[in-house]
TrEMBL record:
Membrane topology annotation: Single-pass type II membrane protein
Protein name, UniProt field: Exostosin GT47 domain-containing protein
All copies of domain Glycosyl transferase, residue ranges: 492-594
InterPro entries linked: Exostosin, Exostosin_GT47, GT64_dom, Nucleotide-diphossugar_trans
Lineage, highest ranks first: Eukaryota, Metazoa, Ecdysozoa, Arthropoda, Crustacea
PANTHER family reported in the protein's UniProt record: ACETYLGLUCOSAMINYLTRANSFERASE, EXOSTOSIN GLYCOSYLTRANSFERASE 1
Presence of keyword Cell division: no
Amino acid sequence: MDSVTMRSKKKHLLVLLSIAFLLFCYFGAHRLKRRERACDLQETLPSYLNPSVPSVIFKSSYSHEIRTTKCDLKECFNFTACLKNGFRVHVYQSSVKPVSDSYQRILNVLRQSSLFTPDPSQACLFILDIDTLDRDILSNDYVTDVPSRLKNLPLWNGGMNHVIFNFFAGTWPDYEEDLGFDTGKAILAKASMSQEAYRVGFDISLPLVHSEHPEKGGEPGLASGMNFPLEKEYIISFKGKRYTHGIGSETRNSLFHLHNGEDIIFVATCRHGKSWKQTKDERCDEDDLEFERQVLLQNSTTCLVPRGRRLGSYRFLEALRAGCIPVVLANSWVLPFSEVINWSQASLILDERDLLQVPQIIRSLSQEKILAMRQQTQFLWERYFSSMESIVMTTLKIIEERIWSHMKQEAVIWNMPPGGIFHQLSVSSFPPICPICETPDLELEEGFTALIYVTTNPASSTVPFFHLLKNVLKSRNLSKVSICPLVLLLLLLERIVVLWCADSVPQRNLFPVVSESLLHILVPPFCSVSARFYPYPILPHGAVFSLDEDASINSDELDFAYQVWRHFPQRIIGYPARSHFWDDAKNSWGYTSKSPWNDPDHFVQRQSCINTFVAVFGYMPLIRSNLRLDPLLFLDDARRPSVFGCAAYLLRL
């Protein structure tokens, strides 16, 4: 009996030991595999502190694919039509469905452009009349049947040579870069473009703009004439949305740690969506009451531009226009037109992980750096972003330079006035010439010629024409003048040429008594405004001052203009009193000034001439550009021994 019991106990013990051994083998091996996988993963994961690793790795939520093809110009673009017919753009006209106001402005700009062709067989690029700007399915402007409509386009060809514009992609809650259709081989011009989705040399990153962004013209920068004081009331500021639920507030939720209420202002409103009240915290009500956003923009040296729901932000262009240097905290964001624009000249691009170091970085900027960056913000805003026309034409210019890459402009052209969009590559067969990029060895002739255009017979010697003639002659008596120890200029009138387009030439005794070699009266073969630009043999190749008979200008102003021209002989120098602007009410360009013309019909003709200019060129050819030199102490001897006088020249862009 005892032996049976002992065998039974041994049997049960052996079974238990076998089960325990099997359990140990199973769970032990599984745990060991997990540890090995963790070790392998740890070896392959980049270090968070490794500065050589792009920060975009740590933002996986933005790395979704948005198209099925990986394209470049060699694989996904047909150069044949472009090389045969030039750079022409065709806009589809098959759609009967209405489009959003923003997309309609883009189509208007394209159809009014000199690049537009109604014949698709002559086109190099094709633009859809299907509204693809807003691809958020919750938006009222979302178009649902885009895939089927693309397949029905006879010229679609998988998207080859097509350009698709998009401002908003993805929707709640992840806001993935998903357009809802396959763009195929089309070039994607998109806002909030990430580095993972961006096809270098093929796609184009656009700015995020408000729906009321103007079609043409655009407002000038707010800091164009207000560069001083260099350091504003706040060194950096931000007021915007802070999302209490969902993505987009990783950075914004930490801003209150840096807010000091004195020279650093970081406040955020929680008002967004429909359920923000259920998730708001104790800071929401307080932050929402403090400060006004536009006031902060114009009174801050720098403005924070953090990522939001999407990578791009309206704040970027708002800061640019206000002359507030953007401080970008949006890892993996491809900045607008970064292929041609050097954003380091106008903004600070920092890593989101460096948020707590932002104040220290801002305080380390020198005043010279602040001034240069602020001026650059105004140039970039007015040239490339102030209107839909600027944005669209810049997009087309970048594509054109990719096609004719051997004629591509240097980066300096894009990043200094007058900018890169006015150089027409496909119009001329000659290589691009940049007169402002090199200083030619010019043998400047001393003195200047005054060309006076006369259209009315002077009744007496007291009319404005003879007053102007006497003021010009006063420059004859000036000798060498030095405005500072570094500059020595000659001010000397060489000759006066009166371009006589009136009925009859008056008696010689009405003119001042001067030698015939100084005063020349010339009757042109044709009388029109263009007659003054004809290269008459009597005119030298140096400085020619073109004056109207009723111009109100004194000798000091003439001498100062000549002095400036000696500094910039390749530039047009003058005293502009008139400017152009886009009139939304009339849907046309306007020409405004404190006009000296007494005949109102004459002014109306000038207005009409401006719009004829635009119709011929396909865009506004006039450029807002001025150089302001301070003439307050001009001709003052007390200024000669001081080099500081030279620094009084202020460049206003």
